[in-house]
Amino acid sequence: MRSLVALVALGLVAPSGSMRSVPLAAFPGLRTAALAVPAQPLRSRAVMIASTDTPLDGSKRSAALAEGYEVCRKITASYAKTFYLGTRFMAPPRARAIWAVYAWCRRTDDIVDAPRGGVKYLKREIAAWSARLERIWEGEAFDVVDLPLVETVKQYPTMSIQPYKDMIEGMLMDLKQDRYETFDDLHLYCYRVAGTVGLMTLPVMGTADGVTYEEAVEPALALGIALQLTNILRDVGEDARRGRIYLPKDELKRFGVSEEQVLAGVLDENYVRLMQFQIARARDYFDKSEDGISKLDASARMPVRASLDLYRKILERIEGNGFDNFRKRAYVSKLEKFMQLPLSYMKCREAAQLSGRAPAGSQ
User: Which residues form the signal peptide (predicted)?
Assistant: First the structure.
């Protein structure tokens, strides 16, 4: 798995080989195995966290909450620097809640990114992680990183556990398959590993006056799909070297591109036409998501806007590299990311003025 995509309607996105909208009615649940909750350490270059197998008691919880929020902040700042800067435009309670969600997603992704055993063991560990999630939703915390999420669930009662379960299901998909027959199949995967983040964070981010949660859901899901499709296109070569092809098999056939060609990294006219088609579709999802930014609460728009703008640039880089995503990695430099923030901020204000809603930074 490669990471989080972005925290979705946010932009805590992940690289492709990992988590990559499906109608809400299609969300499948995950059966929780009756396994012991694991003491899952966080494999982070920012911090090291020790978990216990028993919930923290009341005295430890109160002392650990502030520490937990700080750890979640450091995790977000370490793994999602540009997004983290965007969260600094948010009201502090919302920013802390977003960091808590991101930290859970980061740890979830780490289970697959840094497995401690074979596939059989990994499946047991994922099942146990799902069981631990249920316990968190019941108000139990097993370390200081769990605790902020417990508090966030309490503060935002409309937050659903289902997207978290669906993300775990996306992890299982990556263990079970390395090919996708159709775009519908890939779309489900993208929802589970990326679209879910929009549903996780939307209750925290809030909506603009006069906008319902339901009206904001579809744009959030569309952004998650766009971000993950971009990750997939950026990482075609890297995935191929791992024996994985996320490009739908029926579309490979339609454009005259074989799996063997992708695995060998052969760039020809057919492959270029395939990439042009894939990039156009990703851009269509970005377009669908863009109008939804002004539907969010004003203080929550910046990280979303910045994520959208930066990931669009990755598509431009793929084109600029002559569509050679086998050998050339499309990326946006740290300087470009930093310089993009004020531009994204101005776009937020302009879009809000056109829509008649409060501009970003007005709250």
Answer: 1-19
Enter the pTM of the model: 0.82
Residue 14 lies in a domain: no
Q: Which residue has the higher pLDDT, 55 or 89?
A: 89
Measured distance between the N- and C-terminal CA atoms of the chain, rounded to whole angstroms: 37
The number of angstroms, rounded, from the C-alpha of 341 to the middle of its chain's C-alpha atoms is 20
Tokens of 355: 């829509």
Mean pLDDT check: name the lowest of 6-15, 249-258, 324-333, 342-351. 6-15
249: left (phi over 0), alpha (psi -120 to 50) or beta: alpha
By residue count, the chain amounts to 363
Name residues whose C-beta falls within 8 Å of residue 331's C-beta, 6 or more positions apart in sequence.
234, 314, 317
Q: What is the CATH number of the domain that holds 229?
A: 1.10.600.10
- Of 296, 363, 336, nearest to 89 by C-alpha is 363
Domain that holds residue 305: 24-355
Let me know if residue 5 belongs to a domain. Answer: no
Write the DSSP string, 282-295: HHHHHHHHHTTGGG
For helices 183-190 and 213-234, give the axis angle rounded to 10 degrees: 110
User: Is the predicted pLDDT of residue 1 greater than 80, yes or no?
Assistant: no
